[in-house]
Amino acid sequence: MSLLSVQGLTVKFAMRNNTVTALNDISFDIGQGERVGIVGESGAGKSITGFSILNLLSRPGYIAGGSIMFDGQDLTKLSDKQFRTIRGNRIAMIFQDPMVTLNPVLTIGQQMVEQLQAHRRVSRKDAEIIAVAKLREVYIPAPEERLKQYPHELSGGMRQRIVIAIALLLDPQLIIADEPTTALDVTIQADIMELLLELCESNNVSLILITHDLGVVSQMTQRMLVMYAGRIIETGGTREIINDPQHPYTQGLINALPQQTLPGEKLRQIPGNMPALSAIPPGCPFHPRCGYAVPTCRTVRPELRRHGGSDVACIEVERLHGTTPHKVDYA
């Protein structure tokens, strides 16, 4: 049985003149202790997926269909009061910027103690002991002193370690990490990701890693979902997809990596841009940017089907492998 099972999830935003679809019938499962990456360009629907699971969608966004089963319980059916027993307790989230997560007017100790006492019947003294233990777990030096400090007194890397410690405070079953190293220096990013991987493995915690960095996904996850315009267009084992991508978009993302070009060469960019939610084309949403597009791609929405080592949503996937793309008009 999966720890998390998302089936047919559809998220819409009610705008002034029309309603747009941000997630279009997406489905995936995550087992206990499994690590899954969600990748794609900005606007693909990665963060909306994480927010939907935790019921953090802001108006005018709403879940229009589908189910989110967590440990046998449909999260879409819970009241706000019921959800508070899940969010931050059994499912934790790590956001991009730790300064958004941490309250600037409260000490680290106050925030960690409040988090514990909101979900557990513990004294302040016992809560502080647990907080110190979690800070040690993420290799924070002099943790007793850190409890007395405010977020602005700490470095960016230290703040993100504390955010991870807070996420682990209540021993969650699932962590959703939304671009957890975006705001950090490159030299610190690797340390944070290595720490997160170590903690998930040692505590058997499931992880959803939302990122645009395929290099991080290849090192951190066992399976990955590639999203485009609110749909999952390829899914499978991380190693299989990285080594043999089936969808033209996935191929484009991998080919655009700097290490795929020689020094002095231009990066191999995917032509065009992600469509706006109000202007998603019919058929395959990627067809205006795809070098393999045929007229059918403009009218037929491809469904996920097995090809190679992954499930891929592309009607031309057989022709794509081993052939040369024909020219299309990207205008």
UniProtKB/TrEMBL annotation:
Membrane-related topology note: Peripheral membrane protein
Task: State what protein this is by name.
Answer: Peptide/nickel transport system ATP-binding protein
Q: What is its main location?
A: membrane
Gene source species: Pontivivens marinum
Compartments where found: Cell inner membrane
Q: What Gene Ontology terms for biological process does this UniProt record contain?
A: peptide transport; transmembrane transport
SUPFAM superfamilies, per this entry?
A: P-loop containing nucleoside triphosphate hydrolases
Q: Which SMART domains does the record associate with it?
A: AAA (SM00382)
ABC transporter domain: which residues?
6-254
- Known Pfam families for this protein? ABC_tran, oligo_HPY
Mind telling me which InterPro entries this protein's record contains? AAA+_ATPase, ABC_Ni/Peptide_Import, ABC_transporter-like_ATP-bd, ABC_transporter-like_CS, Oligopep_ABC_C, P-loop_NTPase
Mind telling me which GO cellular component terms the entry cites? plasma membrane
